[in-house]
Amino acid sequence: MVYGKEPMRISTMANIGETGVDEQSSIIFGYDNNAMVVLTCGIRIDTVNEARIYGTKGSIRIPHKFWWRPNRIIVKLEEDEEKEIAFKQLGNDYTYEVIEVMQRLKENKTESEIMDFNTSIAIMSTMDRIRKQWNLVYPEE
Question: Are 7 and 126 in contact (CB under 8 A)?
C-alpha cells in the first residue's frame, strides 16, 4: 500500500499468455496528491530487475534481481553523492512473514499490526481492479 491507501485511479495494460499468466504488464496508480506509482514487469522480456523510488528530495534505488528482498539500497538526496546502504538479509522470500505469524501465534493474536486485515483486503481490492481492466477472470469466480 503506497501512501497507506488504495489508489484513486488505476490505468493498466497486460499481455496475458496462453496459460492465463500475465506475461507482461504496466500499471499506473494515481493518488489524490498528484503522486503516481509506475510499475512494469514481465517474464518474457529482458529488463533491468530493480526498483526505484523517486521523491521531491531524492531517490532510492534497489539494485537487486529480487528487489523485494534486497541486501543493499542506494540513496541519493538532492545534490549529494549516492550512498550505498548494505544490510543482512534474514533467510529468503517468506522468512519475515513466517517470523511475524509465529510471533502473533505466541501472543494468541489473529491479526498483525504490520499487515492488518483491512490492509490485506485493500490490497486484494486493488489487485481485483487491475484484473478487471485486464479482463482476467479466475476459473473459480
Answer: yes
Single pTM value for the model? 0.81
Instruction: Write down how long the chain is.
Output: 141
The number of distinct structural domains making up the chain is 2
pLDDT tens-digit map of 72-113: 999 999 989 999 999 888 877 788 899 999 999 999 999 999
Judge if 94 and 139 occupy the same domain: yes
Q: 42 and 94 share a domain?
A: yes
Whole-angstrom Cα distance, residue 73 to residue 82?
10
Q: Which helix (H) or strand (E) holds 127?
A: helix 117-134
Task: Tell whether 77 and 20 lie within a shared domain.
Answer: no
**Co-location of 1 and 26 in the same domain:** yes
Q: What is the pLDDT of residue 70?
A: 85
Helices (H), 36-141: 95-106, 117-134
